[in-house]
Amino acid sequence: MSDVLEVHDLRRSFRQGGETIDVLRGVELKVGKGEIVALLGPSGSGKSTLLQAVGLLEGGFQGSIRIAGEEAAKLDNEGRTRVRRDSLGFVYQFHHLLPDFTAAENVILPQLIHGADRPAAAGRAEALLTSLGLGHRLTHRPSQLSGGEQQRVAVARALANRPALILADEPTGNLDERTADVVLAEFLRLVREEGSSALVATHNERLAARMDRVVRLHVGVLE
């Protein structure tokens, strides 16, 4: 199995109150093609910092991050933007849907940015949302959807451009337990059906156990 993500000796420090805080201290991680990995750790353990690094969302990191074979350290801002657009999908604890757009439009828009024509993008959006049980909600805006439905739209949006790797940061953390179970099951099913890989940050041991592999972040290193 080839690796979609390879992280080597990843380090990140912050200055706070005149002190240096080492959040990541030489992280080593690989995610294989088609593999779903749970990143487990308590709040404040650095899970979000690690996902931000892997998602090429901010600088200040030391070490190597290879995504779909490309070394992030060798990329300029345009190259990092291209990798995020072409190879990565993101799901957050809060859905971050565009409030003035319908469910379908929220899934269509990233495809148009990626260069798809509108009929193809609309067809892809309808297929993904229907697969997630939202075929009857295509024209509804986020404010007209439940929390679980909003997060399903966010999952569809993340998968719209068929990314190699999905990065999910507490994707069910804002949902009640029953809804979280349903949304996670749909997320895992669809990621597997699409052939993507995923790195999913969570503090929930029960949810993490449903993924292919669990890695634990402790004092800035993975165990």
TrEMBL record:
This entry carries the following GO cellular component terms, namely: membrane protein complex; plasma membrane
> One MF term from GO for this chain?
ATP hydrolysis activity
Q: Does the keyword Secreted apply?
A: no
* All copies of domain ABC transporter, residue ranges: 5-223
Database matches in InterPro entries: AAA+_ATPase (IPR003593), ABC_transporter-like_ATP-bd (IPR003439), ABC_transporter-like_CS (IPR017871), ABC_transpr_LolD-like (IPR015854), MacB-like_ATP-bd (IPR017911), P-loop_NTPase (IPR027417)
**Annotated keywords:** ATP-binding, Cell inner membrane, Cell membrane, Membrane, Nucleotide-binding, Transport
Q: Which SUPFAM superfamilies match?
A: P-loop containing nucleoside triphosphate hydrolases (SSF52540)
Biological process GO annotation list? Answer: lipoprotein localization to outer membrane; protein localization to outer membrane
Q: Which residues form a coiled coil?
A: none
Pfam families in UniProt: ABC_tran (PF00005)
Give the family from UniProt: Belongs to the ABC transporter superfamily. Macrolide exporter (TC 3.A.1.122) family.
What protein am I looking at?
Answer: ABC transporter ATP-binding protein
Q: Which organism is it from?
A: Allosphingosinicella flava
